[in-house]
Amino acid sequence: IDKAYPRLLGGWAFEIADPAAGRILERVVPAGFASTVQSVCKKDSQELTEADRRAVFAACQATECGRVVVTHGTDTLIETAAYLGARHADCLAGKRICVTGAMRPERMVDTDAHFNLGVCFGALSLATPGVYVCMNGVVHRWDAVVRDTE
Known about the structure:
Blueprint: E1 3-4, E2 7-8, E3 11-12, E4 15-16, H1 20-27, H2 50-62, E5 67-71, H3 77-91, E6 96-100, H4 113-126, E7 130-135, E8 138-141
Parallel strand pairs: 5-6, 6-7
Antiparallel strand pairs: 1-4, 2-3, 7-8
Helix pairs in contact: 2-3
């Protein structure tokens, strides 16, 4: 969701930019919605380590907010949701956490980032405490999601 593709000499590469959620929320803010955007880990999700997931967990645990959106690369989004979900009952009880990403980064014209973030807002307003994965208009519990490989 946060990838950017700057033009470099010798070809294209990507970098992880500032949180896309902040740019999206500047344009579209749900009524009565207050938000804080925090950057925890600027990495391609394929490079995430156990320490990175602990940092995401610590940020979710430390916030006083009861509703949390974690934006994440799609390659290992399910693994991070499972990491959070397995620790939810003991350490994140009472919080609603939605993990989402985008198949096409927010900076692209045909991105799904705005839509997926919007689905998270709706899910957080209705869901019971727990960890969820929100992608493509569908909300799954962390332990019931299956990767669509097509």
